[in-house]
Write a structure and sequence with these properties.
Distance between the termini: 44 Å
Number of helices: 16
CATH superfamily of the largest domain: Type I PLP-dependent aspartate aminotransferase-like (Major domain)
Shape: globular
CATH architecture of the largest domain: 3-Layer(aba) Sandwich
Largest sheet: 7 strands, mixed
Number of domains: 2
CATH topology of the largest domain: Aspartate Aminotransferase, domain 2
CATH class of the largest domain: Alpha Beta
Number of strands: 14
Radius of gyration: 24 Å
Order of helices and strands: HHHHHEEHHEHEHEEEHEHEEEHHHEHEEH
Mean pLDDT: 89
Strand content: 5-15%
């Protein structure tokens, strides 16, 4: 929406056409052959040598009541959804006149077959019938069992009652967490520049954003402590929720080190807020240092973790899940009942096949990481002529470079007029501010889909565009204080 506020009619039409969905065929030149990967090491997001502190008590079921929004607290279970869950538990042991399910015999599909880069996925008979049927709102039971096992093995979370909920993509999980925890006008902690999806979700709640600056290692815990301490001293309303992408922060590309994660978790316990850990780039960490997740440190039940395969398997599959303490997960499930009954069963069945084949999945994810690492390095090499015009730090994870343009207070005109007219599409830093009308000197560049042969041309155009904007900025008359 921030695009159309300032553009003229011509550019609005151009933008609309460019943003329309198109059918795209991708030809990958990278070899995605099977690799011999140590599965246990690859899926390791915990520190087995760390000592779990017991300075703070785990939250009880009653404690979570103070975090719930008024809307979430009012939700009640749908009896028909409870019956669906019960039907899956009792199976064929009972005669049922209860469920409002269609009969699978009327479904026209008889077999579904998909070839992947490492295996063949086939659904037929009872498996296909189950993949086309209603399921409990929490998710396909077989997938839930596999995800519980996956989370336990990959993160080894402390012994706190928690469970998983299948969501319709990571953005759906973000929306559910906000709906669960945020009241209109509530303060919410994010990074100074944060994923636009959290902002678009929070806008209707008119939230107060507490934006904490980042350096090359991500959010700065000392600054967070100082800001929250000052709010407490002044008697201001304290936040109940933090949203953070710890690995490959979007847009900055930073990776939060283990020490900082532990410091931030300790602040969550001290200042009494919950952490929404959104980790879609966990498998695109180019540092080769496995870093423990917030979930692996969650001794008190303060972490709601969002996982997604959109960036590494398929964006359109909408394969994602949310891990949270059981009292909160129950409320999230009630939201799902009212919102969409459950996420797509067919997508869940496909996700189940992928997660079950752990070794093949690890091989594919390794290939995906190397594919993107090579593209990151290629764009980094191409960006050399830009360094003195727009400094940046090499991204440690994710898909983005984050540039600060020298001598330009606001890149908006540069992005949507100068660059657009030259056929170069960029994203202005305003996209990652809660106030998208605020001036911003930053640009985000994405290396995931640009062709290698286009990188030098794009950078050459970017250099000319920046210089043109810098000259224009220097020619603007400076304000002079009036005398008298």
């Amino acid at each position: 929406m921030f695009v159309t506020k300032k553009l003229g009619k011509v550019n609005r039409e151009l933008t609309k056409r460019l943003f329309e969905a198109r059918s795209v065929t991708l030809i990958l030149k990278k070899d995605f052959s099977q690799r011999d990967v140590d599965v246990n090491e690859f899926f390791k997001f915990y520190n087995e040598n760390s000592c779990q502190e017991d300075r703070y008590k785990p939250l009880t079921e009653q404690d979570y009541d103070r975090f719930l929004s008024t809307r979430a607290a009012r939700r009640e279970p749908a009896l028909t959804r409870q019956i669906t869950s019960l039907a899956y538990k009792v199976g064929k042991e009972m005669i049922s006149l209860a469920e409002g399910m269609p009969n699978e015999q009327v479904f026209p599909f008889t077999r579904l077959s998909m070839d992947t880069k490492f295996s063949k996925l086939v659904l037929e008979g009872k498996d296909l019938a189950a993949a086309l049927q209603y399921v409990p709102s929490q998710g396909l039971p077989a997938l839930l069992s596999e995800l519980r096992k996956f989370q336990s093995e990959a993160h080894r979370p402390p012994e706190v009652p928690r469970d998983v909920l299948v969501t319709n993509g990571g953005q759906h999980g973000i929306y559910q967490c906000v709906e669960l925890l945020v009241e209109p006008g509530d303060p919410v902690i994010t990074c100074e520049y944060a994923y636009t999806g959290i902002h678009s979700t929070l806008k209707p709640y008119q939230a107060e954003i507490i934006g904490i600056p980042e350096d090359e290692d991500g959010m700065i815990p000392e600054t967070l402590d100082a800001v929250l301490g000052e709010r407490l001293r002044r008697g201001l309303k304290m936040p109940k929720m933090m949203y953070i992408i710890p690995t490959g922060s979007n847009p900055t590309g930073t990776v939060l080190p283990e020490e900082r994660r532990r410091e931030i978790y300790e602040l969550a316990c001290r200042y009494d807020f919950l952490i929404v850990e959104d980790d879609p780039y966990m498998f695109l960490n180019y540092t080769d240092r496995p870093i423990p997740s917030f979930l692996s440190m969650d001794t008190c039940g303060r972490v709601l973790r969002l996982d997604s395969v959109s960036k590494v398997v398929s964006a359109g599959l909408r394969g994602a899940w949310l891990t949270a303490p059981k009292p909160l997960l129950h409320r999230l499930e009630l939201h799902t009942q009212a919102e969409l009954l459950h996420s797509c069963t067919l997508a869940q069945a496909i996700l189940l096949q992928l997660v079950q084949c752990r070794k093949s999945l690890a091989s594919h994810l390794t290939n995906a990481r190397e594919f993107y690492r090579e593209r990151r390095d290629a764009l980094h090499a191409a960006l050399k002529p830009v360094e003195h015009l727009a400094p940046y730090t090499m991204p440690d994870a994710g898909l983005f470079f984050w540039l600060r343009v020298n001598g330009i207070e606001d890149v908006y005109n540069m992005v949507f007029h100068t660059a657009f007219q030259r056929g170069l599409m960029l994203v202005p830093g305003q996209a990652f501010l809660y106030d998208s009308n605020a001036p911003c000197p930053y640009l985000r560049l994405t290396f995931s889909k640009i062709r290698h042969e286009d990188m030098d041309t794009a950078v050459s155009n970017l250099v000319e565009i920046i210089r043109e904007e810098q000259q224009r900025a220097q020619q603007k008359p400076k304000r002079v204080a009036t005398e008298g």
